[in-house]
């Protein structure tokens, strides 16, 4: 690059930067969208980007926020977590966004956390996760373990009479932590050590023959057996295919999954899977006027009536509406003011209830257990009577049981109620 | 479980006495109400009415086709045609025509209710004309043994003509005999039947019998348990070998194309996995075309897709060779980087054309399901993939050893200058060899689409395994690839039960590292350009 072009380039960049900051101050509020549009996670995250664009468009049609138009800024983190860190910094510093909606994996969230703390911005994280975390700058609109895993296990114990458990998961932080919590919970309930089988597989595992035959063997010992699956995205298809081919039906050994939703089933022939279960806080099949309207507008936005909606999309819907309300209440998009205004904010969810942001930055959600149908949708077979408040620190793990998160009164994400100090690990 | 059984039995007897009071009409009308447990009780009562229509009601409920019309509150059976639903009254058969969307609500069933329905239907279908239905009934009776039904089952067994159903029935009779207070001779016979059955289910029942019963029955039962344990160890071994062969066949398919491009030509082709992916997407496109235009041909879709996948992937391979790789011969690092770049481009191209989501590739009917071989279950798709892998291997061997192009390929590989002097167009042979390797990768894609996700990332998961197999087997020797694939597959599957899937994979990799230290040229080393260069 010659000196002249470099100078010109620099000048151009500077003017562009000035232009955008000036505009941001005048009539638009920028909303950052930080999802993978390429790489392994693109399969799940592209939909979330589209859902966010739709929500922003709808809000603008309804008059924007604080009389200003919302301007979405989309970046692609390419399923690369160090890159996510850089892109988050770029969004906040260079693009000047006031809030970011993004990430799918826990690795992504952990990678961008320091940026949000350092630059004091806001992240809405829409996916169910393993808990054991609460940060001042992050709002968790997906399920904590007590809003998904624990109720699903309760359902299996009470309705299906399950006594023997296979905890199968992909080998990374979310399944390992969730299974640790579940194991402690099951032992609390009096399940014997030999009635729990724990199994981990690598990412993208495709040869399930040994494991499925182990499960069949484990399940033929005369006690009702169920599989609790924290198997991640791509590995699910060959897993369910192997189950179907081996002739293991949901009536013999039901599988309850925490990462299989409508989107994942859309790449699969679901006829052999009828009756297998999933636990979520939202299903596309739930019959409420809000959900009907959401699906209609989603189809219209995306221009394809075969596209499905799923749980993390609903989480973005709730999170986005909460942010809009909090900004209007605070009268500004300033991060500190919005973070202070968010706890206590209420927004309708798509299943007919009103979710509330809690002081621990998690939200209240209903829990549903659904059975897979032959059309790739879920039929709700069980739901909680009330909304369940998200618990950041699990009560079933000895190390996290005394911890508590409260950003309103205690100003602390990991307050130890035994030693009465903040920041204890 | 026992409690449930007692409740169910109580409900049935209760229903029998109430049958006169509660007609099928009343019972069906109460189906939509209450919880799943209430519905389970109603199901038992419906089965107890003895009404001819009861079976149809239960079947429809089991399928999830039973709904309640919002307009008149009738329980109807729903039939879908395209996006429209049509309703007929389940009892009167009256046609209510098309149902507006959300104009009816489904009577929900869950897994435990499905089990109740099957158990209730069991006794009703023991004498059904369709053998498949009788088999299902016998199996249901085996799973929920009820001594009260022993006589009914024995009668059905005496009248049974189909050998498979008769076998299932005799097992159901045996379990019922062990469960109840049958005479000793009958119980001993039951133990023999279950011992013959020889699986874990039978073992569980026998172990319980060994603990509960007394005298000769207990003795026979514990003998049988020991016998089953012994047999199961043997079958476990056989099963591991089979799993290993099956994993090996997948490895072989993925690696065999690379055995040519990398093994024979010495090109480090990082885009090999993407050529596999292209083959899988070709299968998807063929299936889509068949689904929309010629649904009757669906079972043939893979046979149609195979040559197309070979052609498409082979064509892309030739383009890669002519466009990029031929300028980089003898520069392995640059080749590696360039082909890696190509692999990213191919991935993103597929993502842009077909979207990032998984695509559904169906199994033709001959590749679905499984069959029992002794105590092991062999799934058809795995068996066919093994056959396919061996067939591809045999054809490749034939091409390389017995055809003129194969001769030229070997000549160019062994001594390019001399081959060129003999009048062989080495450039053309290079392109054809690369194309052959790529085409075979495409064929692998057809097979892998049957067991794995068809997504843009499909290839990435196989590239490391493929290189592993080729390097282990010895570059340049396709027999080495065969031996390498199957020995790695079997080693992996024997390790997996002991160490878990994650550690098994790591151990195999560690083993290969050590092995390559000792024998850098793999199992079967050959001399060729790849080695001499």
TrEMBL record, chain A:
SUPFAM superfamilies: Periplasmic binding protein-like I. Transmembrane segments: none annotated. The keyword Phosphoprotein does not apply. It comes from the Bacteria. InterPro entries: ABC_urea-bd_UrtA, Peripla_BP_I. Residues 1-24 form the signal peptide. Keywords: Signal. This is Urea ABC transporter substrate-binding protein. It comes from Mangrovicoccus algicola. The lineage of its organism: Bacteria, Pseudomonadati, Pseudomonadota, Alphaproteobacteria, Rhodobacterales. The gene is urtA.
From TrEMBL, chain B:
The chain crosses the membrane at residues 241-268, 300-320, 332-350, 383-400, 428-447, 467-491, 498-516. It is found in: Cell membrane. The keyword Transmembrane helix applies. Keywords: Amino-acid transport, Cell membrane, Membrane, Signal, Transmembrane, Transmembrane helix, Transport. InterPro entries: ABC_transp_permease, ABC_UrtB_bac, BCAA_transport_permease. It is a multi-pass membrane protein. GO terms for biological process: amino acid transport. One of its GO terms (cellular component) is plasma membrane. GO terms for molecular function: transmembrane transporter activity. The keyword Acyltransferase does not apply. Residues 1-21 form the signal peptide. Pfam families: BPD_transp_2 (PF02653). Belongs to the binding-protein-dependent transport system permease family. LivHM subfamily. This is Urea ABC transporter permease subunit UrtB. It comes from Mangrovicoccus algicola. The gene is urtB.
